Amino acid sequence: MADIPEEKKCSMNFLGRSGLRVSNICLGAMTFGEHNLGTPGQLDEAGSHAVINRFVEWGGNFIDTANIYGRGKSETIVGNWLTSQERDRFVIATKARIHMDVSNPNDVGLSRRHLTKSIEDSLRRLQTDYVDLLQIHMWDSGTPLEETLMTLNDLVRSGKVRYLGASNLTGWQLQKIVDLSKELNLIPFISLQQQYSVLERSSELEPFQVCKLNGVGVLPFSPLKAGFLTGKFQKGQRPTEGRLAFCAEDPDKKMPNSHPQWSKLDTERNWAILDALREIAEARGKTMAQVSIRWLLQKPVVSSVIIGANKLNQLDDNMGAANGWTLTEEEMMKLDTVSKPDVPYPYDIVWRMNTSRQNPWNPSGLV
């Protein structure tokens, strides 16, 4: 593989308001090992390690996994790689919340029992004595939030976890976490991992406003919407292979709504977004994937963008967005405008009436 010039390697950002520095692109490990849902494009251990090594050559230090990815297989693969590395040079993030053993009613959720067991299992698979970032994978309506937050606080105080974050939350849920953590004088959350792309901007309405007001760094996942934003699909031609074909509306697969579905992607708005991406990419000598990722990297709330790759050339292409160039203000505005989502009441009137009321001394405002 070609050597990577220093000026094109990842830059380092603070993760939210913490003192932790992470590469502006994070390597997502969901493609490592056989996936629970049987999705195509999964990597074996050798292939996964090759991708991680190339990511490190690009200056990446941030790897994101979860206990549910392959029900432990992804963490195991990352852990086997980590044993040959200088541990302190890397930021390892994982998650807990989802059912690991469906036959065990206590092996799910954000209870003290399940979180404690989850971190012990994750540390064993990752072959390390601490994780840098532990994220709750989503909200748990079955557990009092006080129990969850006090348990997470104990895990940080014990040294098994360094920082706390969340994923897949609504605005009110994240604000509740922020407020209760302050009230109980507990370790604050520093990050929110959320689906975010030029196609999926709904989190700008509430969750990212909470992030902006409270110093919580955003970690976008699915920045290319299962490859749709690479421009490799054609209007009116349903995919026949890859993840988008796998995630078609098949009731037998019981795919979550968060997984991309072709009928929801094949819209006039989305094809207009692709046209704008293609025009900018061709003018700048970049790929559409790089422009899509760069748009995210230049959003003020974003600390690091999570990418997934199952091929080295795919990784290299995505990493080409990391550094050495930026989108102009006009190009950002063009993408913002063409991808602007429908804004429901009361957001429409609140945002419209405050566009001329932006006060740099007041942190509240639009993302």
UniProtKB/TrEMBL annotation:
The family database entries (CDD domains) matched by this protein are listed as: AKR_AKR9C1 (cd19081)
Q: Which GO terms describe its cellular component?
A: cytosol
Q: Please give one Pfam family short name.
A: Aldo_ket_red
Q: Alphabetically list the UniProt keywords.
A: Oxidoreductase
Task: Please give the InterPro entries that the UniProt record associates with this protein.
Answer: AKR, AKR_Detox_Biosynth, NAD(P)_OxRdtase_dom_sf, NADP_OxRdtase_dom
MF terms (GO), sorted A to Z: oxidoreductase activity
Which branch of life, at top level? Eukaryota
Q: Which residues form the NADP-dependent oxidoreductase domain?
A: 24-338
State the family named in the UniProt similarity comment for this chain. Belongs to the aldo/keto reductase family. Aldo/keto reductase 2 subfamily.
Its protein name is NADP-dependent oxidoreductase domain-containing protein
Taxon lineage = Eukaryota, Metazoa, Spiralia, Lophotrochozoa, Mollusca
